[in-house]
């Protein structure tokens, strides 16, 4: 590696004089202060400004990758105006326990993939040459090669780059040293993530925590009075009259008094809303207990059983006595589904026509937010079924899939990656919208695996 960078190191021959004698035959091994000084000068020379050059997207770019049984190495280089190679960046990492069990071909192929993704910002929009000391990769990464499943997956990851694989022997591969002395950093470790975590931890005051603020607020009678007054709006207490002038600027969140602008900013922040928790389901309304047996009953289907049948279960709310009947089918009259969207004993949702809402999305990976970042506008509300629209994109969901958003609605382009959207035509004037949003209702307990005991057997 030092010989490869010798053209960038001033007085290279003078520095290497104490170490070159070890290349001769019959020279005893003795390591003294002069050898250590020369070795330290090499390490400092590799990181000096005269060694590393600035990246220029208009110059020809090359990536040199190599793998060893313990690590991976990569070098990003470019040719200057005189055609001299200039090093842009070095990179290396250790192999994981699983990667160390790969064959040599797979390790070399992994080095090429890792090197390109490591220098992704430099290579994503330019044509470059990928050098490797494993000649088989010239064929494996070609279009006509028959690859293994693992190398095929790596080849798919490299399709975003415009590259050409070329072979270079070990003697001309400067990344060989980086792969044999890698940095102890596994593949899943991210320097950016560590840096962000460090900033987050250092930004939190170590002298006080949120729980301590909550505890101190709970023990302060004056702040407790202010919190109750903000909740009920009664400002007759003279001990807190000083807070009356700023009553519109403060609020109470989790027992802590905060600036009201902070709470309002979080409510109107699109990023905060799509990353937040969904709203809880509407609670059941309080009803009076029944006055006599069989004056109030609960009816539901259970099944399907392994034989394909369903159980019609009827339960008396007063006594808890059950009645069960075996049913061959659950549909009797077509008109019975007309009011299935109206759930009994549930409070009315706060979502109304014209509101701006966020819609839940499927969890694809750990970075997927709870809600889609594109807001929708509610165009129809029927019981617990809500229809929302964004541009020409219309979806119909249960009210639990929506979250009210306070920011004014903006027309945006539909997201083509959403696979679970139900796209329907916008309702025309004079048409019955009730029939457009009715969907089949399936038993909510259909996924239970344990079959019930038939009643009376």
Automatic annotation (TrEMBL):
Lineage: Eukaryota, Metazoa, Cnidaria, Anthozoa, Octocorallia
Keywords assigned: Endonuclease, Hydrolase, Nuclease, Nucleotidyltransferase, RNA-directed DNA polymerase, Transferase
GO molecular function terms listed in the Swiss-Prot or TrEMBL record: endonuclease activity; hydrolase activity; RNA-directed DNA polymerase activity
Name listed for the protein in its UniProt record: Uncharacterized protein
Source species of the chain: Paramuricea clavata (Red gorgonian)
């Amino acid at each position: 590696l030092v010989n490869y960078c010798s053209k960038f190191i001033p007085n290279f021959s003078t520095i290497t004089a104490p170490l070159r004698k070890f290349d001769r035959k019959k020279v005893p091994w003795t390591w003294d202060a002069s050898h250590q000084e020369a070795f330290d000068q090499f390490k400092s020379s590799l990181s000096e400004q005269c060694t590393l050059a600035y990246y220029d997207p208009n110059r020809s770019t090359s990536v040199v990758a190599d793998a060893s049984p313990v690590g991976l190495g990569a070098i990003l280089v470019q040719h200057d105006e005189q055609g001299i190679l200039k090093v842009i960046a070095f990179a290396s990492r250790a192999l994981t326990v699983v990667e160390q069990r790969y064959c040599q071909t797979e390790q070399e192929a992994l080095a090429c993939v890792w090197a390109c993704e490591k220098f992704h910002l430099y290579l994503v929009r330019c044509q470059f040459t990928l050098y490797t000391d494993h000649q088989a990769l010239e064929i494996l990464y070609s279009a006509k090669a028959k690859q293994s499943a693992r190398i095929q997956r790596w080849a798919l990851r490299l399709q975003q780059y415009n590259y050409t694989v070329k072979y270079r022997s070990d003697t001309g591969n400067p990344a060989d040293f980086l792969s044999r002395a890698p940095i102890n950093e596994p593949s899943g470790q991210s320097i950016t993530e560590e840096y962000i975590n460090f900033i987050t931890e250092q930004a939190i005051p170590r002298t006080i925590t949120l729980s301590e603020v909550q505890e101190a607020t709970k023990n302060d009678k004056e702040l407790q009075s202010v919190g109750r007054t903000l909740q009920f709006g009664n400002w007759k207490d003279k001990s807190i009259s000083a807070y009356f002038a700023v009553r519109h600027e403060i609020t109470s969140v989790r027992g802590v008094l905060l600036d009201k602008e902070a709470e309002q900013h979080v409510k109107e922040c699109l990023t905060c809303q799509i990353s937040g928790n969904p709203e809880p389901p509407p609670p059941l309304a309080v009803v009076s207990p029944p006055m006599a047996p069989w004056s109030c009953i609960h009816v539901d289907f259970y099944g399907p059983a392994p034989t394909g049948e369903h159980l019609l279960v009827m339960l008396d709310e007063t006594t808890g006595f059950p009645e069960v009947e075996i049913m061959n089918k659950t549909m009797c009259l077509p008109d019975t589904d007309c009011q299935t969207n109206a759930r009994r004993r549930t409070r009315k949702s706060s979502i109304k026509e014209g509101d701006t809402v966020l819609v839940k999305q499927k969890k694809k990976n750990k970075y997927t937010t709870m809600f889609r970042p594109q807001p929708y506008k509610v165009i129809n509300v029927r019981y617990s079924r809500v229809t929302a629209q964004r541009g020409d994109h219309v979806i119909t969901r249960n009210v639990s899939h929506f979250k009210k958003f306070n920011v004014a609605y903006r027309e945006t382009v539909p997201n083509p990656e959403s696979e679970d959207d139900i796209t329907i035509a916008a309702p025309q004037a004079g048409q019955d919208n009730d029939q457009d949003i009715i969907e089949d209702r399936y038993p909510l307990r259909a996924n239970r695996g344990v079959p019930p005991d038939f009643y009376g057997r």
